[in-house]
């Protein structure tokens, strides 16, 4: 007897939909950790009558698992040759195989007539849920990130008298409350939505404030010609940037939460507009990431330049030069970690401060051999920041696998959530 599973990829993750045992065998065969997709919601989203509602009920009755897009899951998508849709930005397909055979998924059928994926409304609903799960995954990663620097971020927020940050803290409480209500009720009604409608403007204002702080640190590094002032600016940038990165991370987390709530509201109020709204949110999110990336990259560029200057002047400033390079490397690790939690790709080398004796020996040897009066001591010798970031990423990935396995166990134990009214 044949069985089939349906696959949907949206650039953030992969949805695997089908009979529960078949889905679990497929995921196990590919070695992909997953979490519940919550397809039961499609039953009410699609209404109660017509072909669309029937297709929605059928797919909602299936097991749906979500897999975070990683190198492994990306290879699975490539392996099975899903068909791209330029309109929706999704890749879809159906895998068929003999029931009970893990390696039986060998026949690939593109958009079979009986597939629920051929129904635009059902596909839009599933894609909307996928977008929500992906953003909630990022929110969870940011929560872990903030836990490591929570004390510093709290110090920054408490020390600020600026009304912008005060409003952001209050908005955060309201959004967290709305997410709790959503979790309990399974939907976002008009009353809940009305409480957070003004939140995006406040969060954007706070984000702009934090970005200005990072830009200010970069400008101070750029305009300090005196090495002593440069060393002070580098130390300050190393210390304060981590705190403002934390504020930015919280802003990003709250923006994702608003988007999750917003999609729920569109589910209820204007389901026909769901796909367009999802694409709009995706584009807006990408723009925010680009804005943050530009600001943090600019700061990193200034710190890298400062580190190069420090290495070049290590003989004249044997005590201060190494501290500048250490500050640059510390910041590199912090930014790479921050980028990783938000999903911003990064790859940056770091500099090592030369010991004063090493630099002195190099100058002496080269002067003796070639009659040189001096030498530029700046030298890129290894990729410390990248190595440490990769190590941290590996740890994060391991934690993610453990967490998704716990999710799977929790999903099996949990009762079936109440459908949206």
Explain how this protein is built:
- With 421 residues, this protein is an alpha+beta fold.
- It has two domains: 2-118, no CATH class; 142-407, no CATH class.
- It has helices at residues 20-30, 41-45, 50-60, 71-79, 120-159, 163-185, 190-196, 199-223, 227-269, 274-312, 320-342, 356-370, 384-413; strands at 2-9, 13-18, 35-36, 63-68, 83-85, 90-98, 107-109.
- Strand 1 (2-9) and strand 2 form a beta hairpin.
- Helix 9 (227-269) packs antiparallel against helix 10 (274-312).
- The longest helix has 43 residues, at 227-269.
Summary?
The protein has 421 residues and is of the alpha+beta class. The chain folds into two domains: 2-118, no CATH class; 142-407, no CATH class. Helices cover 67% and strands 9% of the residues.
List the helices and strands and how they pair.
Elements: E1 2-9, E2 13-18, H1 20-30, E3 35-36, H2 41-45, H3 50-60, E4 63-68, H4 71-79, E5 83-85, E6 90-98, E7 107-109, H5 120-159, H6 163-185, H7 190-196, H8 199-223, H9 227-269, H10 274-312, H11 320-342, H12 356-370, H13 384-413
Antiparallel strand pairs: 1-2, 1-6, 2-4, 3-4, 5-6, 6-7
Helix pairs in contact: 5-9, 5-10, 6-7, 6-8, 6-9, 8-9, 8-10, 9-10, 9-11, 10-11, 11-13
């Amino acid at each position: 007897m044949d069985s089939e599973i349906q696959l949907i990829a949206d650039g953030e993750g992969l949805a695997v939909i089908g009979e529960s045992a078949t889905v679990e065998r497929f995921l196990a065969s590919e070695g992909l950790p997953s979490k519940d997709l919550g397809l039961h919601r499609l039953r009410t989203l699609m209404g109660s009558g017509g072909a669309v509602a029937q297709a929605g009920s059928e797919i909602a009755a299936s097991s749906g698992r979500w897999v975070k897009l990683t190198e492994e899951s990306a290879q699975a998508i490539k392996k099975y040759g899903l068909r791209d849709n330029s309109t929706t930005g999704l890749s879809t397909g159906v895998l068929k195989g003999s029931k009970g055979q893990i390696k039986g998924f060998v026949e690939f059928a593109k958009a079979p007539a009986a597939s629920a994926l051929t129904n635009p409304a059902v596909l839009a609903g599933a894609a909307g849920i996928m977008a929500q799960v992906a953003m909630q995954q990022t929110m969870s990663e940011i929560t872990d990130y903030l836990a490591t620097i929570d004390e510093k971020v709290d110090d920054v927020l408490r020390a600020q008298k600026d009304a912008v940050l005060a409003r952001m803290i209050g908005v955060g409480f309201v959004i967290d409350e709305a997410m709790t209500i959503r979790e309990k009720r399974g939907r976002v009604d008009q009353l809940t939505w009305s409480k957070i409608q003004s939140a995006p403007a406040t969060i954007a204002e706070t984000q702009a404030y934090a970005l200005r702080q990072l830009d200010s640190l970069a400008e101070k590094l750029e305009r300090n010609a005196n090495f002593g002032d440069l060393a002070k600016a580098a130390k300050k940038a190393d210390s304060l940037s981590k705190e403002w990165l934390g504020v930015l991370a919280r802003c990003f987390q709250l923006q994702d939460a608003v988007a999750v709530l917003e999609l729920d509201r569109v589910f209820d109020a204007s389901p026909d507009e769901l796909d367009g709204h999802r694409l709009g949110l995706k584009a807006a999110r990408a723009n925010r990431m680009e804005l943050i990336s530009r600001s943090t990259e600019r700061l990193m560029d200034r710190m890298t330049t400062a580190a190069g200057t420090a290495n070049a002047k290590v003989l004249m400033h044997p005590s201060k030069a190494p501290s500048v390079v250490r500050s640059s490397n510390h910041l590199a690790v912090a930014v790479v970690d921050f980028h990783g939690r938000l999903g911003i790709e990064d790859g940056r080398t770091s500099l090592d401060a030369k010991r004063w004796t090493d630099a002195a020996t190099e100058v002496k040897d080269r002067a003796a051999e070639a009659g040189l009066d001096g030498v530029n001591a700046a030298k890129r010798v290894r990729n410390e920041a990248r190595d440490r970031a990769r190590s941290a990423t590996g740890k994060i990935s391991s934690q993610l696998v453990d967490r998704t396995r716990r999710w799977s166990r929790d999903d099996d134990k949990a009762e079936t959530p109440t459908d949206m009214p």
